[in-house]
Amino acid sequence: MTTITAPTTGPAANVRSARRWLALSVLALAQFLVVLDASIVNIALPVLGEQLGMDTAALSWVITAYVLAFGGLLLLGGRLADRYGHRRIFLIGTAGFVAASALAGLSVTSGMLLGARAFQGASAALLAPAALALLTHLFPDTKDRTKALGVWGGVAGIGSAAGVLLGGVLTATLGWQSVFYVNVPIGAIVLIATPLLITRDTVGARGKLDIPGAVTITGALVAAVGALSAIEQVGLTHPLTIGLAAASVVLGVAFVVVERRTAAPLVPLEVFRNRNLTVGNIVMLLIGAAMVALFFALSVYMQAVLGYDALATGLTQLPLAGALVIVAGIVPAVISRIGAKPTLISSLAVLAAGLVWLSFAPADAQFVTDILGPSILIGVGMGGAFVTTTQLSVDGVEGGESGLAGGLVNTSQQIGGALGLAVLGTIASLRTEALLDSGVAAPEAITDGFSWLFLGTAAVAVLAAIAAGFARKS
Fold this sequence. Notes:
By secondary structure, this protein is mainly α. It is built from 16 helices and no strands. The protein has helices at about 20-50, 55-85, 85-105, 110-140, 140-175, 180, 185-195, 210-235, 240-260, 275-305, 310-315, 320-340, 340-360, 365-395, 400-435, 440-470. Mean pLDDT is about 85; it is low at about 1-15.
């Protein structure tokens, strides 16, 4: 039986690096790659599709191929890191990500590009949970770990904004290939610096890998993400959507049965007895749903309604990202003063308030008067919520389960993002179509549809705050 205990503290816990803050910057740089890739490719899609002869349906697979591999393999990636070494799996994942990025940039056919994107996603599924596990090893003390997670959250904010901004600049100046090539030099720095800053793994493979568990949970997650993606493309009642959803449920049940019976489970179900870990993952799922739906809607609203180009759209999101980065740096001190639970609930309340405010933006909105204020409020709420939720998700997890914890929280964020975009995007689309059918002009109809989406994301943030209320006081 797996036990969940407080992380080891003291000198022995810090032997992974003599320069752990510098090591953190390298890990954060790798995380920056993963976050950046989630948004930088979107801006390049129209140009990419024209040059490779891909229609709209095919272009959606440039995103879906990455998301399916990433979301589906995260739990397996986290468990492989626990079994075979966090540094080892982190380096393998980073090397794979760099190689896949280069292949994507060299692509001359749609098939080659989609294969490279799937390779990127699979590599990210190794990289992300291993990086978070290494962070928990470098900073076993709760206070220092909270500060480190503040840096982690700040990097996530920079990556989100930089993706939109860099995507527009690089595509316009150097071509769509450059949005993939930009990962290569950054990844090379990570690959060179990591062995110099972080010691070798002392853990080795322990027993056989739970193959039935790996197959069932990976299949369940891939089917779940696929079903959510299918809702956007073919609708809720399409046979493909229903079939994938049913497969996800069946495989999920099979996974639970397997994990209960195997001696060395891939995901020990006892891990969910850790209340903060469970609450943290529920909240992260809801935050992921709100964030992905929000950034999608903002991008379309800015360009389709307000007439901004890709570069201007990226620039308008800098205040939000800036607020997120600043708050991510401040929130560790707030957590130390008032605790994680009050900090998280307050952050989610601020996030919900900003989203409600944004829902009042009209079809002829002015950035300074209608969008800047709520954007800053949203950034403040997101910065506090992201850092605190990540801390809850790894709270009290022993070293041998830290990769699993990293895989769980990343999986929750990915599944939440797909769920939020599918559900809230569908609500916005249905509202817009109803208004268009009744004779409302397109700008007003799209704006009103997104207003419903923003109110939906606010409701999701309120649900997350309610869930956070079940966390243990800390």
